Amino acid sequence: MDYTHKSVLLDESINGLNIKPDGIYVDATLGGGGHTYEILKQVTTGKVIGIDQDDYAIGKASEKLKEFKNFIPVRNNFHNIEEILKDLNIDKIDGIMFDLGVSSFQLDIPERGFSYNYDMPLDMRMDKSQTTTARHIVNGYEENELVRILRDYGEENWAARIAKFIVQERELEFIETTGQLVSIIKKAIPKQVRQDGSHPAKRTFQAIRIEVNKELEILENTMKNSVEHLNVGGRICVITFHSLEDRIIKNTFVDLNKDCICPPEFPQCICDHRRKLKIITKKPIVPSQEELTENNRARSAKLRIGERM
Hints:
- This protein has 14 helices and seven strands.
- By secondary structure, the chain is an alpha/beta fold.
- Strands 3-2-1-4-5-7-6 form a seven-stranded mixed sheet, sandwiched between helices.
């Protein structure tokens, strides 16, 4: 199956990287290669590293970018950025790009089990070599654990009721497919609520996907490690798609922007902590109306940019 991939906030993020032709840049979320392609067009004598834990993404992007001899694909999790750069004998980079969340082709290939629009086996793994799938979580987590992830990761108002219905249904029959799960969610959420707004399964599927791939757990440390490897003046650009991600990025940028982290009651600074990041975007950049018209999936995107001090 082929797929259509539209990179979100493409011009804004590429401009935000402030690219130098001889620089070293990392696209930590290679996906369909859209952002990487635009970076490569400007990096003539430097290097561009594309990271993705999905072997399908690596294969598709490598084919798309084969004309560029300075492109280095790496199948790994961006959480391992230090290890990745060390293996490539690279200490400092001039920019790094993160386009968080699920890729278009992961949603559009039904067999991956990310989408509530197709009835397929529950999977949702970005890295297909890992053992834990959505099926394990839906059928194996205790009710209180399901409530926690639906509430914390999906910001789902009906978390307790959906978790209760999942547990009741799985006692009768193992929940194997996305279609079964959607049916349960629709039973759990009152009809009058379902008639208003987005798909009733959207928040639940988001929450389970985040839990399967441990997406939020690694974000803060990954951002801090990435900034450590930036040259002075190097840029970090991060696109988020929901408030949980954006809050982590915003707070991490604020922490890296602090000159002192001593408790307020200390009479003088003793921490020797120095500001590492200048925040370029005081408020996040959001898609234009034109982009939203062309690409509905961009509607919740926010871009934050920082520069190494």
